[in-house]
């Protein structure tokens, strides 16, 4: 699932804790600023509310057409509101103080190597367009998310190696604003699980699968006499020269809970992503965390399998 992250401040501005509508504020009122980060951020939300009201902004500040041209983005640093701006900072500060009724903010002059959120949104659109091209299917398969931060465009990869970064920069876009994250192929795995306990068992549907397999499947059985609970997440490991390493997978999962009743079985599926990291023949491990009983005791289950030519 691709996650495209934009910063939607309007949701923060229009609602307070618990979804309560915030009080009306007149732009001529002077805000009282407290010292704690939480109090500073609450003041920042009031300031943004005033700014949105004055300019008629209804969406994300960095991309809304009614946003004044000198404003390039906004974020919080230690609770303090930071405006990314371009132009005469003296005049801009005077304007913002008048519109927000406060001086409790920082200005950040963007340009050169300091990217604003508006710059990053433009880059994000180009990335989205180029990833969708048929000739970039191989790179797109490795991308699980990209989003705008305060100063970088975050690119989340399944496999985050220098080679995969180079492929992205060559085929999609090359910019110093890119910030990559994701799994590597050399992260040691020290996890140890068990195949069964207390009447709960995990096993593969086959002792081996093809190296070209996109998925492998497992059977989770419950003969414990009580319910077991688990989520959609799992992890994989592979053996290389006698050492176990994490096999990178898509970290984005649906946050949902499952219940397996006593006497029931469930088929589980793990994705191997052979188009992202060609899987070599050898030993692999599948890890699945469950909880059992009313006290929700955590148990890490493990099933081992092989990939073969």
UniProtKB/TrEMBL annotation:
InterPro entries: Big_14 (IPR046878). Residues 199-304 form the Bacterial Ig-like domain. This is Bacterial Ig-like domain-containing protein.
């Amino acid at each position: 699932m691709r996650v495209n992250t934009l910063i939607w401040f309007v949701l923060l501005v229009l609602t307070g804790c618990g979804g309560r509508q915030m009080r009306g504020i007149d732009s001529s009122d002077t805000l009282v600023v407290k010292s704690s980060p939480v109090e500073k951020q609450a003041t920042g939300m009031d300031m943004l509310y005033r700014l949105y009201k004055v300019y008629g902004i209804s969406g994300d500040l960095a991309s809304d057409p009614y946003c004044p041209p000198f404003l390039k983005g906004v974020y919080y640093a230690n609770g303090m509101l930071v405006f990314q701006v371009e132009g005469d900072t003296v005049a801009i500060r005077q304007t913002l103080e008048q519109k927000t009724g406060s001086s409790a903010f920082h200005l950040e002059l963007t340009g050169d190597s300091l990217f604003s959120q508006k710059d990053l949104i433009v880059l994000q659109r180009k990335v989205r367009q180029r990833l969708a091209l048929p000739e970039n299917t191989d790179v797109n398969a490795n991308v699980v998310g990209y989003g705008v931060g305060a100063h970088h465009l975050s690119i989340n990869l399944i496999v985050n190696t220098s080679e995969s970064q180079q492929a992205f920069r060559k085929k999609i876009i090359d910019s110093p604003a890119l910030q990559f994250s994701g799994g590597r192929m050399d992260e040691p795995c020290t996890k140890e699980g068990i195949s069964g306990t207390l009447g709960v068992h995990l096993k593969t549907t086959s002792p081996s699968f093809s190296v070209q397999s996109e998925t492998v499947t497992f059977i989770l059985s419950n003969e414990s006499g009580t319910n077991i609970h688990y989520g959609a997440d799992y992890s994989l490991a592979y053996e290389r020269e006698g050492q176990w390493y994490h096999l990178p997978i898509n970290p984005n999962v649906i946050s949902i809970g499952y219940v397996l009743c006593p006497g029931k079985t469930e088929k589980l599926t793990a994705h191997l992503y052979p188009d992202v990291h060609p899987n070599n023949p050898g030993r692999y491990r599948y890890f699945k965390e469950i909880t059992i009983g009313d006290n929700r005791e955590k148990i890490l289950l493990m099933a081992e399998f092989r990939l073969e030519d």
